[in-house]
Amino acid sequence: MAITTRALAFASRWFDEATVARVFEPLIADWQREWQDASPGRRARVSIRGLAAFICAVIVSSPSLLRTDAPSSVTNRVAVRMARFIALASILLMSPYLASAPESGWRAIILFSLVPSVITVAFPFSMIGAVDAIRRDDTLPSHVERALAAKLGVIALLFMIVFGGFVVQAGNQMFRAAVTRGTPPVRGVRELTTIELMRDPSIAHAGETTNAGGRAAVIRRELSKRAHLAILPVMLLWLRWGMLDRPRRRWYSPLPSWLMTPLVIAMFFLLNFIGINFARSAAVSAAVGVWLPALGFLAIGLITRWWSRAPLIEQGC
């Protein structure tokens, strides 16, 4: 059964040898035996039941991923790689604001208030270098690499939800107050936390699905933007991981992270621009256009995985 072979290969990539031998190998052996003993009319039902049991076993065994420790040399390398990129990108993003600061006395406040926003923008793209740092050591077992990547993805998602939904808003308010030299401005949609936006009464108004929908449309767009940014690190982590699974043929296949990162950034902003303008021209909610970069990266990731498996399919593997 090809499905059992792929299931066992999946378990071997994600779990340690002891878990595979204790949990998955007996389960798949019973699955194969039951399928062989079943009549042709019942084999489809056996396959579905075996797949459901395998999925349940994966869910039950998933906490072991959290207990899988990676070498400190690898985790330190990942942290340094991410911190270096975020610091460099933050400096580049803040430079125009610092150069045009109204007075030298306000520059420190402006710098401090911009930090959350620029970190939120730069953080997702640091995943590309992080994946390369994880997979640099060829001696690291596959399940340790994937456990570290899974934990990094969960941490990145939580970081973006908290930072992009609560911390950035306080920084935006501080920035506006610094620009107006201490005058507290009225809080706009960008200065409201995610919970405050979700509780806003205007979001429940019906029929406000276009760009001209007033406050409800603006809130929907802001919530969609925050949700999109929250999942972007996980999306880029998954995308880069799939690219590195492809067999290396030349220096540009796959592209090195120092070249891949600016290309992904440019593609993100290009797709974001196209999506927002398409939403305006099609008279649909701007929130729909915000998700175009995620859909584009998803399509690229699926194509990359299909391409990497094509040679194996041609060889009958």
- What is the average per-residue confidence, as pLDDT, rounded to a whole number? 85
Number of domains: 2
- How large is the radius of gyration? 24 Å
Coarse shape: globular
**Residue share in helices?**
over 70%
**Class from secondary-structure proportions:** mainly alpha
Tally of separate helices? 13
- Strand portion, in percent? under 5%
Order of SSEs: HHHHHHHHHHHHH
Any low-confidence stretches, pLDDT <50, length ≥5? 206-212, 311-317
> Sheet bearing the most strands, described?
none
Distance between the termini: 13 Å
The tally of strands reads: 0
List keywords for this structure.
317 residues; mainly alpha; 2 domains; 13 helices; disordered C terminus
Written overview of the protein:
The protein has 317 residues and is mainly alpha-helical. The protein has two domains: 2-66, no CATH class; 72-314, no CATH class. Helices cover 76% and strands 0% of the residues. It is built from 13 helices and no strands. The protein has helices spanning 2-14, 17-37, 43-61, 63-66, 72-99, 104-122, 126-134, 142-179, 194-198, 215-245, 257-281, 286-290, 292-314. Helix 1 (2-14) packs parallel to helix 3 (43-61) and helix 5 runs antiparallel to helix 7 (126-134). It is globular. The two termini are 13 Å apart.
How are the SSEs ordered, and which strands pair?
Blueprint: H1 2-14, H2 17-37, H3 43-61, H4 63-66, H5 72-99, H6 104-122, H7 126-134, H8 142-179, H9 194-198, H10 215-245, H11 257-281, H12 286-290, H13 292-314
Helix pairs in contact: 1-2, 1-3, 2-3, 5-6, 5-7, 6-8, 7-10, 7-11, 8-10, 10-13, 11-13
